[in-house]
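Q: Here's a chain of 121 amino acids. Please give me its 3D structure as tokens.
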Amino acid sequence: MPTSSTSPREREILPQLSNATIVRWFKIVAIAEAISWALLLTGMYFKYLATDRTDVLVSIFGALHGGIFVLFVALTLLVWRRLRWSFGTLALALVSAVPPFFTIPFEMWASRTGRLDPTRR
């Protein structure tokens, strides 16, 4: 049970993860989210356009994409909190997960502008 002398950082849910680790995972998942989009779109091609149509790929890649999407959203919220992003940056990060492949340009922009600097406070 935390005492009144416990700092807010010590009361965090994931205090053992460094900002550098969280940023590294954010970048990995941003790329994985884009790759899962490509897989899902491939599955949709075979479901709707291919000569030998099958929907099994959409079932597999859709579930994979959905899981990675949820992980991306969770990591985005964690990075927002840890690195003290503005609400605008948070919104842009979340919106980047909706159109195919936009998480990669967002990650590149956020890295270039220092928003993914693990020392940022």
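Q: Can you summarize the key feature?
A: DSSP finds four helices and no strands in the chain.
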